[in-house]
Each structure stands twice: as C-alpha cells, then as structure tokens.
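During the reporting period the student researcher (J.K.) took over the structure-prediction task from the postdoctoral fellow and processed the backlog of single-chain submissions. One of the processed entries is reproduced below for the supervisory committee.
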Amino acid sequence: MRLLFYFFGLVLAMYLCAMLALFLMQDCMLLPSTPDAADPRTLPHAAEDIKQWKVHGEYEGYIVAPAQGRARGTFILYHGNEESAETKLPLADVFVQNGYRVVIVEYPGHGNRPGSRTMKATLTASREALAGALAQWGAPIFLVGESLGAGMASQVTKGNETAVAGVVLITPWDSLADVAAEKYPFLPVRWLLHDPFDSVAALSSFRGPLVIVGAQQDTLIPVLHARRLASEHAHSHFLLLPTADHDNWFTAMRGSDWRQILALLHAG
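J.K. obtained the following structure tokens:
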C-alpha cells in the first residue's frame, strides 16, 4: 500500500508540474524564436516601394506599396509564428500588384523588433497597427492573417467592425483553447490559457466580407477548426485548398483563388 501511495503521489506531482509548465511557458510554446531572414528591401521588388514602417520613431514592420500611382487602400498583414515580417513579401506582393499598400506587422520580440515575445504584446501590437494605419491613411483597410496572425486579425476586428473593410483568415483556429485542448487532452488547458483567443466570439459582430482559407492536409491546426469558424458566420466565404498543409498553402494558391478573394472583399 505504501508503494502504491508513493506511485500515485509521484504521478500527481508530475501532473501538477505539467500543468504549471504549461501555464508558465505558454508564451514560449506559442511564440518560438524566429529564424533570421533577408531584409525585404534587398530582395527583387520591381514596381514596388518597400520601406520600414515606424510609429513614433520605433520600427514596427514594413510598408510595401506600388511604386507608381496612388494606393487604392491598405491591407494589414499579420504573420504566423516562427515567422517574421521579413518572410512575408511574397504574400504582400499579391495585394500590391492589385494596387494596394500593404503593412506587414512585426510583433515585439520577432524579427528586428525589440520587446517581450508574449501573446499579450503580440495582440497589443496588432491592435496598434490598425490604429496607426487608420490615422496615417484612413479607409479602406483590410486585415489578412495567417495561422497565429489569423487569431490576431480576428481579435483586432473586435470593437473595430466599422473600421475594417474586410478580413481574410488563412489556416485559422476557431479558438486557441479548442486547438490546445486537442493537443493536450489530459490537461485542463481551457483553465490554464491566459487567453482563449476565441475567434468565433471576436468576429460575432462583424458584418463585412469575411474569407476563410482552410488547408485540407493541415495537421497543426486541422481544417475542421477553419470549417467551424466559417460555419459560425453565415456571411463568411470558405475556400478549401485540398492538397495544401499548414506550411505550403501559399504555393497551393492559384491566381484565380486570389482573384476570387479580392472579388469577395470588393477589392478587385
């Protein structure tokens, strides 16, 4: 009996340690360090003007705009984790080539932006990006988020529904809590997360164009989460990439897919 008591005591201690580790280390788990990447200003970018975006003298990402003519509006781009603003020029190009300015947001502690790499700081920076873009250029402003960035774009939309002209969410979660509960079914993750980052709730009052792109082969955030997010918003449009996974969705996108998205946003 004594050995059995010790065994269950050890199991309980290990379980409690796992709970404590998840509670204390979730920012590190959700926001791993980003690899070095080339400055997009040094990459080929014909007919585009690329410069650092600075607010009050502080670096907060990049502005990519058509080199000639006046931009038709602004797309704010929120990248995923294990990425940085330096890696998103190909995605920005899609919208620049259609006459729009793109703000590639950098999160604190990512890429070349100093600061604490936490979900709270990431969300604060994401919200400040919308406020800064509105103050600098005004409407129309569209939000585009990928993976983690889709969660950020959803939260930024909350409370700013009338200021956002349209939203594109790529390989999104419905809520971070739901995804985490799948990954760690033996832990009470819904209680342990600092914020559930519920995209369904965040978008509940948004009535503008909402496009959700899901990757059928996604194993990191299974496509059922994107499907649920779309099903919870009757006005949304769901685009499925049948051969894509979480990392290669961009190469699976065709020109017709992008034209459809722009048309749905009334930005074609």
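The committee noted the following: The mean pLDDT is 91.
J.K. will present the remaining backlog at the next meeting.
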